[in-house]
Design goal:
Elements: E1 2-7, H1 28-31, H2 38-48, E2 57-62, H3 67-77, E3 85-91, H4 102-106, H5 115-118, H6 135-141, E4 145-152, E5 179-183, E6 186-187, H7 200-207, E7 211-212, E8 216-221, E9 235-239, H8 251-257, E10 260-262
Parallel strand pairs: 1-3, 1-9, 2-9, 2-10, 3-4, 4-8
Antiparallel strand pairs: 5-8, 6-7
Helix pairs in contact: 2-8
């Protein structure tokens, strides 16, 4: 199954770099003019994502982007969604843990726990809960996701994920074409986290005996032109992300509602 996971800040030319804790809306003077026009938003939804008002997809509008994970959990509990599923993540941020404490926690003894137990754990070892900046990494650790397609805002960094969550620490660099990396959470209880050492022998020794989760393909699409889907999503969700968008962008939520059946 495949879910569409949109963030309203993708439809902006200027990406805000602010702490997760800031709750105020972006000011209109600096960000209002960077919001896409209605015509451009509709064109992207219909021609890039393949959405149609004649063939609406079950979906939801949420406030914080971590509510996407809660929505998926709700669908799983109801038997409407089966996992692992594919996520098409259209956003100005990867939401894979960069800047959060959760990445270390999710690569700790957490990986020794069965899935049922993992999914009952909601906070990292510092008591910080699932946030807007790491909910996708939590979903990976919950073994919910088989593949992530990150349609990144061309105006952003596009590689804003935690490097050591990648398989064998291997990263293909992002230029102007789609690339594929692989997330693989791992934990080695026999050694402390190693200091940087780039030798193949050291990496091989370190990885021996490690507990490894399944690989999750991370495809990164850095341009708008290369976002090409046929609307074949089982569910769709869009996040308002109020601390990363100005209030004048909220019309996009109403446009999105025209393409979904809200559940």
């Amino acid at each position: 199954m495949k879910v569409l996971d949109l963030d309203m800040d993708y439809f902006m030319e200027h990406i805000a770099c602010i702490p997760f804790s800031v709750s105020d809306r972006l000011d209109e003077d600096n960000y209002g003019d960077t919001v896409w026009s209605e015509e451009r938003v509709r064109n992207f939804l219909e021609n890039n994502l393949g959405l149609s008002k004649k063939n609406k997809i079950p979906g939801r509008v949420v406030v914080g982007h971590n509510e996407s994970l809660f929505f998926w959990e709700e669908l799983l509990e109801q038997g409407k969604l089966t996992d692992p599923f594919e996520v098409v993540h259209v956003d100005s941020h990867a939401d894979l843990g960069l800047g959060c404490s959760s990445s270390d926690f999710l690569q700790s003894a957490f990986l020794t726990l069965p899935v049922e137990t993992r999914r009952r754990i909601r906070d990292d070892d510092e008591g910080v809960g699932i946030s807007i900046g790491d909910y996708l990494l939590w979903a990976v650790a919950y073994k919910m996701i088989s593949k992530i397609t990150y349609c990144a805002n061309p105006n952003g960094d596009k590689n804003d994920y935690v490097w050591d969550t990648l398989k064998d620490f291997k990263e293909d660099m992002i230029w102007d074409k789609p690339i594929i990396n692989y997330i693989q959470l791992k934990y080695n209880s026999q050694m402390e986290w190693p200091k940087y050492n780039d030798s193949k022998e050291y990496k091989k020794k370190y990885m021996l005996g490690a507990i490894k989760d399944p690989e999750v393909e991370l495809k990164i699409i850095p341009t708008i032109e290369d976002v090409k889907f046929q609307g074949d999503f089982d569910y769709a969700v869009i996040a308002q992300s109020p601390n990363y968008t100005p209030a004048s962008a909220d019309f996009i939520l109403d446009i999105f509602r025209e393409y979904i059946v809200e559940i």
